[in-house]
Specification:
By secondary structure, the chain is α+β, with helices and mostly antiparallel strands. The protein has a domain of about 100 residues: Beta Polymerase, domain 2, CATH 3.30.460.10. The protein is about 30% helix and about 20% strand. It is built from four helices and five strands.
Length: about 150
């Protein structure tokens, strides 16, 4: 009679379970970091006359409005496209866009921040800064620069 022997062997590589990773949504940025992401992206894409308007306490549409110009419809559309990608990658809860196809005026609603990108002529015509109490043509602080110091400081 043949003896039946049972041997325990280690599982082969083919029979081991594969680990699965569940993609997670990136943690969304706080509003200041989101504002820095927006202005930084626009600055990197050579946007002109970037203005950030603080809307906190003035409006329920958002905490900040960013307005910038591009030299052409192509530049405006490219800036918008780059910014939309960065916002989505950062975990912005929602990103709604209008006007991307024409490139004259692109509106990007990223929740706490509303971004308006214009060709210069269109920006001059609508004068959104004036509507929000920012004097058009007033001295502004370029993105990334230190604010001007008072003469008696």
């Amino acid at each position: 009679m043949m003896a039946h022997s049972e041997t325990a062997s280690a599982p082969s590589a083919a029979t081991t379970k594969k680990e699965t990773t569940i993609p997670t949504k990136p943690k969304s940025l706080d509003r200041d970091a989101l504002l820095d992401l927006v202005t930084g992206s626009l600055d990197d894409d050579k946007a002109e006359d970037i203005v950030a308007i603080d809307l906190a306490g003035k409006s329920s549409i958002g905490d900040h409005m960013v307005i910038a110009s591009g030299r052409s419809t192509r530049q405006v559309s490219a800036m918008a496209d780059h910014l939309i990608g960065k916002l989505k990658q950062s975990g912005a809860p929602r990103v709604n866009v209008e006007g991307l196809n024409t490139g004259d005026w692109v509106l990007i609603d990223a929740g706490d921040i509303i971004v308006h990108l214009f060709r210069p002529e269109v920006r001059d015509f609508y004068a959104l800064e004036k509507m929000w109490g920012v004097e058009v043509g007033a001295e502004t602080v370029p993105v990334g620069a230190e604010p001007p110091r008072a003469a008696n400081a």
